Amino acid sequence: MEASIFRKPYFVGKFLPALLQPRHLPDVADTRMKFIEALKSAGKIPLSLYSKYEEACKKETRQLLEGVFELDDEDNMDDMLLEPMEQLRLRLAQLSKAVASGNSENKVTEIISIIADKIENLLKTEGDKDCERSNVCLVENCQSDLELKHVQIVDQIMNCVCRSVYASQQADCLWLQQLVRMLSQQKVLHKAFFTRFLLLVQNKGMLLSEHHIDGLAMLSFYLQLDGSIFPSICLRAHQSKNKSFLACILLYLPCRTEQTMMYSIRFLMTYLKTALKYCGKLKTDEKDFMQLLPSCLLKLFCLLVWHLVPKTQPLKEYEFLMLIASLTSPVLCLTHMMETYLGGIM
Fold it and tell me: What is the average per-residue pLDDT within 206-219?
């Protein structure tokens, strides 16, 4: 029988094709793999036939992996080959793409869950230090004491928000609310996030494009909306009492020159438009609506309008404020100002 097997016509035409059936090869060589390798070493298998066998086995492996991972999620394959920080970047880009294409809420929720896992994987060796026990986040006036990795993570998140806001043009941006709530759980990142956000607003605002300003303003609205799940902010530079994050943003908005005032009013306009759309869609009553618009924000907005819009400047400052105060409904007040005074400059 052995002699008949190794006769060339039968061996090449029948035996080898049966032996070299393509399959997913195990990591540890089994008896069949060892036998094939021995025949190859002895020169019994033509090189061209062995090469075809190798290629067919690789194809079997690829098809097997495609069965494990969803075919429409090719990023999973790339993910395994990347460093953890690059994995996070990939998933944030995937979120922007999903938001821009109007994917279902379930798909977006799934991606945000994966993003949370990637962040936790990056931070898993650090622990929460004192973050779990504190309801106050101390924010410095510089970022020199921040961990570089923390800065990289929060910068990627903020860039993702700005890209997604620009691409989606959605009125409600519920995906952004989900992202903010996920961020509230990443307590180790809070100091870096709040510090970077405030320094961007204060020092880089004039360098930001319009879609970056809009993205940060919309992000600040959803941070205010869910402010109760974030710590209060203590600004060391201002030696201030604990504040909401929105109150801190208003302290950092630059208003010394006409250019900086134009930047600040753009930021506030986007914030107010987001608030009006969100509350209008959910039929929020005025009391709840005004919790999202503290008096310091409305006062700053009114003063910027008075300084920037020519048709309001003949009025003295106190007269302008009295005019605004005479409008009994804050919602009506904002709508009136946007339509009457700001229609031509924004």
Answer: 91
